Amino acid sequence: MSADHTALDPIVGPEVLRTRSDIVVADVRWYLDRRPGRAAYQEGHIPGAIYVDLDEHLAFLPMKSQGRHPMPTPASFATSLGSLGIGPDDTVVAYDDQHGMSAGRLVWMLRITGHDAALLDGGLQGWPFELATGEERRRSVFHPIRPWPDQLLVDADTAGAAGGDPHVVLVDARAPERYRGDTEPVDPKAGHIPGAVNLPFGGNIGPDGRFLDPAALRARFASAGITSADDAIVYCGSGVSACNNLLAMEQAGLGRARLYGGSWSQWSNDPDRPVATG
Amino acid sequence: MTESSDRFYFRQLLSGRDFALDDPVAQQMVNFVYLIGDRATGEAVAVDPAYGVADLLDILGQDGMRLTGVLATHYHPDHVGGSMMGFNIEGVKELLDLQGVKIHVQAEEAELVKKVTEVSDSDLEIHSSGDRVMVGDVAIELIHTPGHTPGSQCFLVEGTLVAGDTLFLEGCGRTDLPGSDPSAMYHTLHHTLSRIPDDTVLFPGHRYSFHSSASMGQTREMNYVFKPASEEQWMMMFGQ
Q1: Single pTM value for the model
Q2: Rounded to an integer, what is the distance from CA A1 to the centroid of its chain?
Protein backbone atom coordinates (compact mmCIF):
# COMPACT_ATOMS: atom_id res chain seq x y z
CA MET A 1 0.00 0.00 0.00
CA SER A 2 1.03 3.56 -0.54
CA ALA A 3 3.39 4.70 2.20
CA ASP A 4 1.69 8.09 2.51
CA HIS A 5 -1.78 6.77 3.21
CA THR A 6 -3.54 4.57 5.72
CA ALA A 7 -5.10 1.40 4.36
CA LEU A 8 -8.56 1.75 2.86
CA ASP A 9 -11.66 0.30 4.45
CA PRO A 10 -13.18 -2.47 2.29
CA ILE A 11 -15.90 -0.08 1.11
CA VAL A 12 -15.19 3.58 0.35
CA GLY A 13 -17.13 6.53 -1.06
CA PRO A 14 -16.28 8.35 -4.29
CA GLU A 15 -14.62 11.19 -2.34
CA VAL A 16 -11.42 9.17 -2.07
CA LEU A 17 -10.98 9.25 -5.85
CA ARG A 18 -11.20 13.04 -5.81
CA THR A 19 -8.57 13.40 -3.11
CA ARG A 20 -6.05 10.75 -4.17
CA SER A 21 -4.54 10.55 -7.63
CA ASP A 22 -2.42 7.46 -6.94
CA ILE A 23 -5.32 4.99 -6.90
CA VAL A 24 -5.87 2.48 -9.72
CA VAL A 25 -9.59 2.50 -10.58
CA ALA A 26 -10.97 -0.77 -11.93
CA ASP A 27 -14.27 -1.19 -13.78
CA VAL A 28 -15.42 -4.79 -13.25
CA ARG A 29 -18.86 -4.72 -14.85
CA TRP A 30 -20.16 -8.18 -15.73
CA TYR A 31 -23.65 -9.44 -16.51
CA LEU A 32 -25.19 -12.85 -15.94
CA ASP A 33 -27.18 -12.46 -19.17
CA ARG A 34 -23.85 -12.32 -21.12
CA ARG A 35 -24.11 -8.66 -22.12
CA PRO A 36 -20.46 -7.64 -22.59
CA GLY A 37 -19.19 -5.64 -19.64
CA ARG A 38 -16.31 -4.32 -21.71
CA ALA A 39 -18.69 -2.64 -24.16
CA ALA A 40 -20.48 -0.94 -21.27
CA TYR A 41 -17.07 0.21 -19.98
CA GLN A 42 -16.11 1.62 -23.37
CA GLU A 43 -19.37 3.55 -23.60
CA GLY A 44 -18.72 5.31 -20.30
CA HIS A 45 -16.46 4.75 -17.30
CA ILE A 46 -14.93 6.66 -14.44
CA PRO A 47 -12.02 8.64 -15.94
CA GLY A 48 -8.76 6.72 -15.66
CA ALA A 49 -10.45 3.38 -14.93
CA ILE A 50 -9.12 0.23 -16.56
CA TYR A 51 -11.42 -2.65 -17.44
CA VAL A 52 -10.98 -5.89 -15.49
CA ASP A 53 -12.79 -8.90 -16.96
CA LEU A 54 -14.31 -11.22 -14.35
CA ASP A 55 -14.21 -14.20 -16.71
CA GLU A 56 -10.68 -13.58 -17.98
CA HIS A 57 -8.77 -12.14 -15.03
CA LEU A 58 -10.67 -13.30 -11.93
CA ALA A 59 -11.70 -16.85 -12.85
CA PHE A 60 -10.94 -19.83 -15.04
CA LEU A 61 -13.42 -21.42 -17.46
CA PRO A 62 -16.59 -22.93 -16.03
CA MET A 63 -16.05 -26.57 -15.07
CA LYS A 64 -18.71 -28.84 -13.62
CA SER A 65 -16.10 -30.19 -11.24
CA GLN A 66 -15.10 -26.73 -9.97
CA GLY A 67 -18.07 -24.43 -10.62
CA ARG A 68 -18.82 -21.52 -12.92
CA HIS A 69 -15.99 -19.24 -11.81
CA PRO A 70 -13.10 -21.35 -10.51
CA MET A 71 -10.48 -19.26 -8.76
CA PRO A 72 -7.51 -18.65 -11.06
CA THR A 73 -4.20 -20.16 -10.02
CA PRO A 74 -2.04 -17.75 -7.99
CA ALA A 75 0.40 -17.55 -10.92
CA SER A 76 -2.45 -16.78 -13.34
CA PHE A 77 -3.82 -14.04 -11.08
CA ALA A 78 -0.35 -12.53 -10.61
CA THR A 79 0.37 -12.42 -14.34
CA SER A 80 -3.12 -11.04 -15.05
CA LEU A 81 -2.58 -8.24 -12.54
CA GLY A 82 0.81 -7.57 -14.10
CA SER A 83 -0.70 -7.38 -17.57
CA LEU A 84 -3.32 -4.92 -16.27
CA GLY A 85 -0.58 -2.73 -14.84
CA ILE A 86 -1.43 -3.43 -11.20
CA GLY A 87 1.69 -3.88 -9.08
CA PRO A 88 1.96 -5.20 -5.53
CA ASP A 89 2.12 -1.72 -4.01
CA ASP A 90 -0.80 -0.23 -5.96
CA THR A 91 -4.00 0.76 -4.21
CA VAL A 92 -7.09 -0.32 -6.15
CA VAL A 93 -10.70 0.90 -5.98
CA ALA A 94 -13.16 -1.18 -8.00
CA TYR A 95 -16.75 -0.66 -9.07
CA ASP A 96 -19.56 -2.09 -11.14
CA ASP A 97 -23.20 -1.12 -11.58
CA GLN A 98 -24.80 -3.95 -9.59
CA HIS A 99 -23.98 -3.07 -5.97
CA GLY A 100 -20.51 -4.56 -6.14
CA MET A 101 -21.76 -7.95 -7.34
CA SER A 102 -18.72 -8.54 -9.60
CA ALA A 103 -16.29 -5.83 -8.43
CA GLY A 104 -16.38 -7.31 -4.93
CA ARG A 105 -14.63 -10.42 -6.22
CA LEU A 106 -11.59 -8.40 -7.38
CA VAL A 107 -11.48 -6.42 -4.15
CA TRP A 108 -11.67 -9.56 -2.02
CA MET A 109 -9.01 -11.36 -4.09
CA LEU A 110 -6.71 -8.36 -3.76
CA ARG A 111 -7.27 -7.85 -0.04
CA ILE A 112 -6.61 -11.49 0.87
CA THR A 113 -3.31 -11.35 -1.02
CA GLY A 114 -2.05 -8.29 0.79
CA HIS A 115 -3.22 -5.42 -1.42
CA ASP A 116 -4.82 -2.19 -0.31
CA ALA A 117 -8.13 -2.38 -2.18
CA ALA A 118 -11.73 -1.23 -1.74
CA LEU A 119 -15.14 -1.36 -3.35
CA LEU A 120 -16.59 1.95 -4.53
CA ASP A 121 -19.76 2.54 -2.53
CA GLY A 122 -22.70 3.34 -4.77
CA GLY A 123 -20.90 1.97 -7.81
CA LEU A 124 -21.06 3.71 -11.16
CA GLN A 125 -24.54 5.07 -10.38
CA GLY A 126 -23.12 6.87 -7.35
CA TRP A 127 -20.34 8.58 -9.32
CA PRO A 128 -21.42 12.23 -9.51
CA PHE A 129 -18.87 13.42 -12.05
CA GLU A 130 -18.28 13.09 -15.77
CA LEU A 131 -17.47 9.76 -17.48
CA ALA A 132 -14.79 8.91 -20.04
CA THR A 133 -15.26 6.77 -23.15
CA GLY A 134 -13.07 4.29 -25.02
CA GLU A 135 -10.38 2.00 -23.62
CA GLU A 136 -7.67 2.97 -21.13
CA ARG A 137 -4.66 0.77 -20.44
CA ARG A 138 -1.81 0.90 -17.96
CA ARG A 139 1.68 -0.26 -18.89
CA SER A 140 2.23 -3.86 -17.77
CA VAL A 141 4.27 -4.36 -14.62
CA PHE A 142 5.78 -7.16 -12.54
CA HIS A 143 3.51 -8.68 -9.92
CA PRO A 144 4.82 -11.41 -7.58
CA ILE A 145 2.99 -14.73 -7.30
CA ARG A 146 1.24 -14.93 -3.95
CA PRO A 147 -0.61 -18.06 -2.77
CA TRP A 148 -4.28 -17.96 -1.83
CA PRO A 149 -4.56 -18.10 1.96
CA ASP A 150 -5.83 -21.66 2.51
CA GLN A 151 -7.67 -20.71 5.69
CA LEU A 152 -10.02 -18.38 3.77
CA LEU A 153 -11.06 -20.77 0.99
CA VAL A 154 -13.03 -23.94 1.72
CA ASP A 155 -14.16 -26.87 -0.41
CA ALA A 156 -17.57 -28.52 -0.80
CA ASP A 157 -16.99 -31.03 2.02
CA THR A 158 -16.16 -28.26 4.49
CA ALA A 159 -19.14 -26.18 3.37
CA GLY A 160 -21.45 -29.20 3.66
CA ALA A 161 -20.17 -30.00 7.15
CA ALA A 162 -20.64 -26.37 8.19
CA GLY A 163 -24.34 -26.67 7.40
CA GLY A 164 -24.65 -29.20 10.20
CA ASP A 165 -22.26 -27.54 12.64
CA PRO A 166 -23.96 -25.39 15.31
CA HIS A 167 -20.75 -23.41 15.77
CA VAL A 168 -20.52 -22.29 12.12
CA VAL A 169 -23.02 -20.22 10.13
CA LEU A 170 -23.20 -21.22 6.48
CA VAL A 171 -24.47 -18.22 4.49
CA ASP A 172 -26.11 -18.36 1.05
CA ALA A 173 -25.78 -14.91 -0.55
CA ARG A 174 -28.13 -15.54 -3.51
CA ALA A 175 -31.59 -14.06 -4.01
CA PRO A 176 -34.31 -15.58 -1.77
CA GLU A 177 -36.15 -17.29 -4.64
CA ARG A 178 -32.99 -19.16 -5.65
CA TYR A 179 -32.20 -20.05 -2.03
CA ARG A 180 -35.71 -21.42 -1.51
CA GLY A 181 -35.58 -23.30 -4.81
CA ASP A 182 -38.61 -21.54 -6.30
CA THR A 183 -36.56 -20.87 -9.42
CA GLU A 184 -33.09 -21.69 -10.73
CA PRO A 185 -31.99 -19.77 -13.83
CA VAL A 186 -28.53 -21.29 -14.40
CA ASP A 187 -27.72 -24.33 -12.28
CA PRO A 188 -29.00 -27.92 -12.65
CA LYS A 189 -30.82 -28.14 -9.32
CA ALA A 190 -32.85 -25.59 -7.33
CA GLY A 191 -32.43 -25.05 -3.60
CA HIS A 192 -29.56 -24.61 -1.17
CA ILE A 193 -26.97 -26.49 0.88
CA PRO A 194 -28.74 -28.05 3.90
CA GLY A 195 -28.28 -25.92 6.99
CA ALA A 196 -27.47 -22.70 5.11
CA VAL A 197 -29.15 -19.43 6.07
CA ASN A 198 -30.07 -16.86 3.42
CA LEU A 199 -28.49 -13.41 3.56
CA PRO A 200 -28.85 -12.05 0.00
CA PHE A 201 -26.02 -9.68 -0.80
CA GLY A 202 -28.54 -7.06 -1.90
CA GLY A 203 -29.58 -6.77 1.74
CA ASN A 204 -26.29 -5.04 2.49
CA ILE A 205 -27.44 -2.12 0.37
CA GLY A 206 -29.80 0.62 1.57
CA PRO A 207 -32.56 2.35 -0.41
CA ASP A 208 -30.05 5.05 -1.45
CA GLY A 209 -27.94 2.47 -3.29
CA ARG A 210 -25.11 2.72 -0.73
CA PHE A 211 -23.98 0.09 1.76
CA LEU A 212 -25.65 0.15 5.18
CA ASP A 213 -23.48 1.73 7.84
CA PRO A 214 -21.25 -0.60 9.88
CA ALA A 215 -23.65 -0.73 12.84
CA ALA A 216 -26.57 -1.71 10.61
CA LEU A 217 -24.41 -4.32 8.84
CA ARG A 218 -23.38 -5.72 12.24
CA ALA A 219 -27.03 -5.97 13.25
CA ARG A 220 -27.90 -7.70 9.98
CA PHE A 221 -25.24 -10.38 10.44
CA ALA A 222 -25.98 -10.72 14.16
CA SER A 223 -29.60 -11.51 13.27
CA ALA A 224 -28.24 -14.60 11.48
CA GLY A 225 -26.07 -15.51 14.47
CA ILE A 226 -22.82 -14.08 13.11
CA THR A 227 -20.89 -12.02 15.63
CA SER A 228 -17.44 -12.92 14.29
CA ALA A 229 -16.48 -13.70 10.71
CA ASP A 230 -14.36 -16.57 12.04
CA ASP A 231 -17.61 -18.49 12.49
CA ALA A 232 -19.02 -17.93 9.00
CA ILE A 233 -18.66 -19.51 5.56
CA VAL A 234 -20.28 -17.72 2.62
CA TYR A 235 -21.28 -19.04 -0.79
CA CYS A 236 -23.45 -17.87 -3.67
CA GLY A 237 -23.86 -19.07 -7.27
CA SER A 238 -20.17 -19.18 -8.21
CA GLY A 239 -18.12 -17.46 -5.51
CA VAL A 240 -18.58 -13.95 -6.92
CA SER A 241 -21.51 -12.14 -5.26
CA ALA A 242 -20.62 -13.84 -1.95
CA CYS A 243 -17.62 -11.50 -1.86
CA ASN A 244 -20.06 -8.63 -1.33
CA ASN A 245 -21.09 -10.24 1.97
CA LEU A 246 -17.45 -10.95 2.85
CA LEU A 247 -16.54 -7.30 2.36
CA ALA A 248 -19.65 -6.14 4.25
CA MET A 249 -18.65 -8.32 7.22
CA GLU A 250 -15.17 -6.83 7.19
CA GLN A 251 -16.65 -3.32 6.93
CA ALA A 252 -18.81 -4.16 9.94
CA GLY A 253 -15.69 -4.98 11.94
CA LEU A 254 -16.37 -8.71 12.08
CA GLY A 255 -13.12 -9.76 10.36
CA ARG A 256 -12.62 -11.99 7.33
CA ALA A 257 -14.98 -14.90 6.79
CA ARG A 258 -14.32 -17.89 4.57
CA LEU A 259 -15.54 -18.37 0.99
CA TYR A 260 -16.83 -21.61 -0.51
CA GLY A 261 -15.74 -20.64 -4.02
CA GLY A 262 -17.27 -23.56 -5.90
CA SER A 263 -20.64 -22.46 -4.49
CA TRP A 264 -24.00 -23.61 -5.84
CA SER A 265 -22.67 -24.10 -9.39
CA GLN A 266 -20.31 -26.78 -8.11
CA TRP A 267 -22.55 -28.24 -5.42
CA SER A 268 -25.60 -28.65 -7.66
CA ASN A 269 -23.55 -30.38 -10.37
CA ASP A 270 -22.58 -33.18 -7.98
CA PRO A 271 -25.43 -35.74 -7.89
CA ASP A 272 -24.25 -37.02 -4.50
CA ARG A 273 -24.73 -33.67 -2.73
CA PRO A 274 -28.02 -33.19 -0.82
CA VAL A 275 -30.31 -30.27 -1.62
CA ALA A 276 -32.68 -28.43 0.73
CA THR A 277 -35.62 -26.29 -0.40
CA GLY A 278 -38.00 -23.86 1.21
CA MET B 1 14.43 -21.33 -3.54
CA THR B 2 12.81 -21.37 -0.11
CA GLU B 3 12.51 -17.69 0.74
CA SER B 4 9.52 -15.43 0.07
CA SER B 5 7.82 -16.05 -3.25
CA ASP B 6 8.16 -12.31 -3.87
CA ARG B 7 11.78 -13.12 -4.74
CA PHE B 8 10.75 -15.12 -7.81
CA TYR B 9 10.67 -12.90 -10.87
CA PHE B 10 8.22 -14.08 -13.52
CA ARG B 11 6.64 -12.00 -16.26
CA GLN B 12 4.39 -13.07 -19.11
CA LEU B 13 4.51 -10.52 -21.94
CA LEU B 14 2.21 -10.59 -24.96
CA SER B 15 3.73 -9.43 -28.25
CA GLY B 16 2.04 -6.36 -29.65
CA ARG B 17 0.36 -5.57 -26.33
CA ASP B 18 3.08 -5.49 -23.68
CA PHE B 19 6.06 -4.88 -25.99
CA ALA B 20 6.62 -4.33 -29.73
CA LEU B 21 3.46 -2.25 -29.46
CA ASP B 22 3.24 -0.94 -33.01
CA ASP B 23 4.35 -4.13 -34.76
CA PRO B 24 1.41 -5.63 -36.70
CA VAL B 25 3.18 -8.99 -37.05
CA ALA B 26 3.72 -9.13 -33.29
CA GLN B 27 0.04 -8.29 -32.77
CA GLN B 28 -1.06 -10.91 -35.28
CA MET B 29 1.15 -13.72 -33.91
CA VAL B 30 0.19 -13.23 -30.22
CA ASN B 31 3.46 -14.71 -28.94
CA PHE B 32 4.21 -14.81 -25.25
CA VAL B 33 7.72 -13.93 -24.09
CA TYR B 34 8.64 -14.82 -20.51
CA LEU B 35 11.14 -13.13 -18.25
CA ILE B 36 12.25 -15.36 -15.38
CA GLY B 37 14.71 -14.56 -12.65
CA ASP B 38 15.80 -13.99 -9.07
CA ARG B 39 14.94 -10.54 -7.71
CA ALA B 40 17.50 -10.92 -4.93
CA THR B 41 20.40 -11.17 -7.39
CA GLY B 42 18.83 -9.18 -10.23
CA GLU B 43 19.54 -11.91 -12.79
CA ALA B 44 16.96 -12.91 -15.40
CA VAL B 45 16.62 -14.96 -18.56
CA ALA B 46 14.29 -14.30 -21.49
CA VAL B 47 12.30 -17.17 -22.99
CA ASP B 48 11.79 -16.82 -26.76
CA PRO B 49 12.73 -13.14 -27.13
CA ALA B 50 11.47 -11.91 -30.51
CA TYR B 51 9.97 -8.80 -32.11
CA GLY B 52 11.02 -5.76 -30.01
CA VAL B 53 14.08 -7.11 -28.23
CA ALA B 54 15.16 -3.64 -27.04
CA ASP B 55 11.75 -3.30 -25.40
CA LEU B 56 12.43 -6.47 -23.44
CA LEU B 57 15.75 -5.12 -22.18
CA ASP B 58 14.00 -1.89 -21.22
CA ILE B 59 11.37 -3.81 -19.23
CA LEU B 60 14.08 -5.75 -17.42
CA GLY B 61 15.90 -2.51 -16.66
CA GLN B 62 12.77 -0.88 -15.29
CA ASP B 63 12.34 -3.86 -12.98
CA GLY B 64 15.94 -3.60 -11.79
CA MET B 65 16.89 -6.84 -13.53
CA ARG B 66 19.66 -7.67 -16.02
CA LEU B 67 19.67 -10.27 -18.77
CA THR B 68 21.98 -13.21 -18.12
CA GLY B 69 20.73 -15.68 -20.71
CA VAL B 70 18.20 -16.70 -23.32
CA LEU B 71 16.12 -19.86 -23.32
CA ALA B 72 14.79 -20.99 -26.70
CA THR B 73 11.79 -23.33 -26.71
CA HIS B 74 12.32 -24.05 -30.43
CA TYR B 75 13.74 -22.59 -33.62
CA HIS B 76 10.71 -21.02 -35.31
CA PRO B 77 11.26 -17.33 -36.17
CA ASP B 78 8.31 -16.08 -34.11
CA HIS B 79 10.21 -17.42 -31.08
CA VAL B 80 13.87 -16.70 -31.85
CA GLY B 81 13.73 -14.29 -34.80
CA GLY B 82 14.47 -14.75 -38.47
CA SER B 83 12.58 -14.64 -41.72
CA MET B 84 9.01 -15.90 -41.76
CA MET B 85 6.28 -15.48 -44.37
CA GLY B 86 8.19 -12.61 -45.98
CA PHE B 87 8.69 -10.75 -42.70
CA ASN B 88 12.00 -10.35 -40.92
CA ILE B 89 11.42 -10.75 -37.19
CA GLU B 90 13.91 -9.46 -34.64
CA GLY B 91 15.17 -12.08 -32.23
CA VAL B 92 18.16 -13.58 -30.50
CA LYS B 93 20.67 -12.29 -33.07
CA GLU B 94 19.69 -8.67 -32.47
CA LEU B 95 19.40 -9.25 -28.72
CA LEU B 96 22.90 -10.70 -28.51
CA ASP B 97 24.20 -7.67 -30.40
CA LEU B 98 22.83 -5.55 -27.53
CA GLN B 99 23.87 -7.89 -24.71
CA GLY B 100 26.18 -10.87 -25.10
CA VAL B 101 24.60 -13.85 -23.36
CA LYS B 102 24.25 -17.55 -24.12
CA ILE B 103 21.24 -19.11 -25.82
CA HIS B 104 20.23 -22.35 -24.11
CA VAL B 105 18.95 -24.92 -26.61
CA GLN B 106 18.37 -28.64 -26.80
CA ALA B 107 21.02 -30.48 -28.84
CA GLU B 108 18.49 -31.50 -31.52
CA GLU B 109 17.56 -27.85 -32.11
CA ALA B 110 21.03 -26.28 -32.25
CA GLU B 111 21.63 -26.43 -36.01
CA LEU B 112 18.10 -25.24 -36.73
CA VAL B 113 18.45 -22.22 -34.42
CA LYS B 114 21.77 -21.33 -36.05
CA LYS B 115 20.27 -21.63 -39.52
CA VAL B 116 17.27 -19.33 -38.98
CA THR B 117 18.96 -16.75 -36.74
CA GLU B 118 22.58 -16.78 -38.04
CA VAL B 119 24.02 -16.97 -34.52
CA SER B 120 27.24 -18.94 -34.13
CA ASP B 121 28.25 -22.04 -32.21
CA SER B 122 29.84 -19.94 -29.51
CA ASP B 123 26.50 -18.22 -28.85
CA LEU B 124 24.83 -21.49 -27.96
CA GLU B 125 24.87 -23.59 -24.82
CA ILE B 126 23.71 -27.04 -25.78
CA HIS B 127 21.63 -29.13 -23.37
CA SER B 128 20.00 -32.48 -22.95
CA SER B 129 16.76 -33.19 -21.16
CA GLY B 130 16.90 -32.78 -17.37
CA ASP B 131 19.63 -30.15 -17.41
CA ARG B 132 19.19 -27.21 -15.07
CA VAL B 133 19.93 -23.58 -15.74
CA MET B 134 20.47 -21.56 -12.56
CA VAL B 135 19.37 -17.92 -12.55
CA GLY B 136 20.54 -16.67 -9.21
CA ASP B 137 18.96 -19.18 -6.84
CA VAL B 138 16.13 -19.99 -9.25
CA ALA B 139 16.56 -23.42 -10.85
CA ILE B 140 15.01 -23.93 -14.29
CA GLU B 141 14.70 -27.53 -15.46
CA LEU B 142 14.91 -28.08 -19.21
CA ILE B 143 12.63 -30.84 -20.50
CA HIS B 144 13.11 -32.11 -24.06
CA THR B 145 9.64 -32.28 -25.61
CA PRO B 146 9.95 -33.20 -29.31
CA GLY B 147 6.93 -33.26 -31.60
CA HIS B 148 6.37 -29.72 -32.85
CA THR B 149 10.09 -29.58 -33.69
CA PRO B 150 12.90 -32.11 -33.05
CA GLY B 151 14.49 -30.15 -30.21
CA SER B 152 11.49 -28.42 -28.64
CA GLN B 153 11.83 -27.94 -24.90
CA CYS B 154 9.67 -26.87 -21.95
CA PHE B 155 10.90 -25.14 -18.80
CA LEU B 156 9.81 -26.21 -15.34
CA VAL B 157 10.40 -23.55 -12.71
CA GLU B 158 8.78 -22.75 -9.34
CA GLY B 159 5.48 -24.49 -10.09
CA THR B 160 5.18 -23.18 -13.65
CA LEU B 161 5.65 -24.96 -16.96
CA VAL B 162 6.70 -22.62 -19.77
CA ALA B 163 5.76 -24.77 -22.72
CA GLY B 164 6.48 -22.89 -25.96
CA ASP B 165 4.48 -24.48 -28.77
CA THR B 166 4.49 -27.95 -27.22
CA LEU B 167 1.23 -27.49 -25.32
CA PHE B 168 -1.43 -24.79 -25.36
CA LEU B 169 -4.46 -24.49 -23.10
CA GLU B 170 -6.43 -25.78 -26.08
CA GLY B 171 -4.58 -28.03 -28.50
CA CYS B 172 -0.85 -28.44 -29.02
CA GLY B 173 1.75 -27.28 -31.51
CA ARG B 174 1.28 -28.27 -35.14
CA THR B 175 2.68 -31.63 -36.11
CA ASP B 176 2.31 -31.25 -39.88
CA LEU B 177 5.28 -28.94 -40.40
CA PRO B 178 8.76 -29.90 -41.67
CA GLY B 179 10.58 -31.49 -38.71
CA SER B 180 7.35 -32.20 -36.84
CA ASP B 181 6.64 -35.70 -35.59
CA PRO B 182 3.11 -36.61 -34.42
CA SER B 183 4.28 -39.82 -32.77
CA ALA B 184 6.92 -37.95 -30.79
CA MET B 185 4.27 -35.40 -29.75
CA TYR B 186 2.11 -38.22 -28.39
CA HIS B 187 4.97 -39.46 -26.22
CA THR B 188 5.81 -35.93 -25.09
CA LEU B 189 2.26 -35.14 -23.98
CA HIS B 190 1.21 -38.54 -22.66
CA HIS B 191 4.48 -39.75 -21.13
CA THR B 192 7.16 -37.08 -20.67
CA LEU B 193 4.78 -34.41 -19.35
CA SER B 194 2.58 -36.84 -17.40
CA ARG B 195 4.86 -36.37 -14.37
CA ILE B 196 4.07 -32.65 -14.19
CA PRO B 197 1.74 -32.17 -11.18
CA ASP B 198 -1.84 -30.99 -11.68
CA ASP B 199 -1.20 -27.80 -9.72
CA THR B 200 1.71 -26.73 -11.93
CA VAL B 201 0.61 -23.80 -14.08
CA LEU B 202 0.90 -24.03 -17.85
CA PHE B 203 2.22 -20.88 -19.56
CA PRO B 204 2.03 -21.39 -23.36
CA GLY B 205 3.99 -19.81 -26.21
CA HIS B 206 0.98 -18.09 -27.81
CA ARG B 207 -2.26 -16.59 -26.64
CA TYR B 208 -4.51 -18.91 -28.59
CA SER B 209 -7.17 -19.08 -25.84
CA PHE B 210 -9.31 -16.65 -23.90
CA HIS B 211 -7.19 -17.35 -20.83
CA SER B 212 -3.43 -16.86 -20.83
CA SER B 213 -2.57 -19.67 -18.39
CA ALA B 214 -4.21 -22.57 -16.56
CA SER B 215 -3.26 -25.33 -14.18
CA MET B 216 -2.10 -28.60 -15.74
CA GLY B 217 -5.06 -30.27 -14.03
CA GLN B 218 -7.51 -27.92 -15.72
CA THR B 219 -5.65 -28.33 -19.01
CA ARG B 220 -5.72 -32.14 -18.80
CA GLU B 221 -9.44 -32.02 -18.06
CA MET B 222 -10.35 -29.67 -20.90
CA ASN B 223 -7.75 -29.99 -23.68
CA TYR B 224 -8.69 -32.47 -26.42
CA VAL B 225 -5.07 -33.56 -26.90
CA PHE B 226 -5.41 -35.57 -23.68
CA LYS B 227 -8.51 -37.44 -24.89
CA PRO B 228 -6.88 -40.21 -26.99
CA ALA B 229 -6.36 -43.29 -24.83
CA SER B 230 -3.61 -44.81 -26.98
CA GLU B 231 -1.02 -43.87 -29.56
CA GLU B 232 -3.19 -45.54 -32.20
CA GLN B 233 -6.11 -43.26 -31.36
CA TRP B 234 -3.74 -40.29 -31.28
CA MET B 235 -2.37 -41.06 -34.75
CA MET B 236 -5.91 -41.31 -36.12
CA MET B 237 -6.50 -37.75 -34.87
CA PHE B 238 -3.13 -36.14 -35.47
CA GLY B 239 -1.16 -38.37 -37.86
CA GLN B 240 -0.97 -37.38 -41.49
Answers
A1: 0.96
A2: 20
